[in-house]
Amino acid sequence: MKYLVKFTPVLAFFFSSVLLAHVQLQNSEPTNNAMLASSPERLSLTFGNDVRLLKVTFSDSKGEEVNFGFKPVKNSGDNFSWGLPQLATGNYVVEMIFFGEDGHKMKERINFMIH
């Protein structure tokens, strides 16, 4: 019983951190806060585990959406990529909503600038 009392907090911490671990965006092209000299050719998103993308919006500093061909996906994956149109100089925001395999709805956001 003495050992159970000593290890209960350790076990609680371990299991709570496992349960609270969610999938995150691991890499993007362009990267978050990138300062680019020219328009990127692609938007690529890489996640730590499989996700199901529900929505990805791409907008300029005026809030106008950039059409890049996103369509919600039925199957899960960890790597997504789209070709981009020629982008003008300015600031851009990419926002995404996705479900991890654990069923949690999550959001991520990246910003970048073209000189």
Low-confidence regions: 13-20
Global Rg: 19 Å
DSSP strand content: over 45%
Q: Which second-level CATH architecture applies? A: Sandwich
Counted beta strands:
6
Class of secondary structure makeup: alpha+beta
Specify the CATH class: Mainly Beta
Tell me what the structure shows:
- With 115 residues, this protein is of the alpha+beta class.
- It has one domain (23-114): Immunoglobulin-like.
- It has one helix and six strands, in the order αββββββ.
- Strand 5 and strand 6 (105-114) form a beta hairpin.
- The radius of gyration is 19 Å and the shape is elongated.
- The model is unreliable at 13-20 (pLDDT under 50).
- InterPro entries: CopC_dom, Cu-Rt/internalin_Ig-like, Ig_E-set.
- This is Copper resistance protein CopC.
Topology diagram in text:
Elements: H1 2-20, E1 25-29, E2 34-36, E3 42-60, E4 77-83, E5 90-100, E6 105-114
Parallel strand pairs: 2-6
Antiparallel strand pairs: 1-3, 3-4, 3-5, 5-6
Keywords:
115 residues, alpha+beta, Immunoglobulin-like, six-stranded mixed sheet, 1 helix, 6 strands, 17% helix, Copper resistance protein CopC, Ig_E-set
Characterize this entry briefly.
With 115 residues, this protein is α+β, with helices and mostly antiparallel strands.
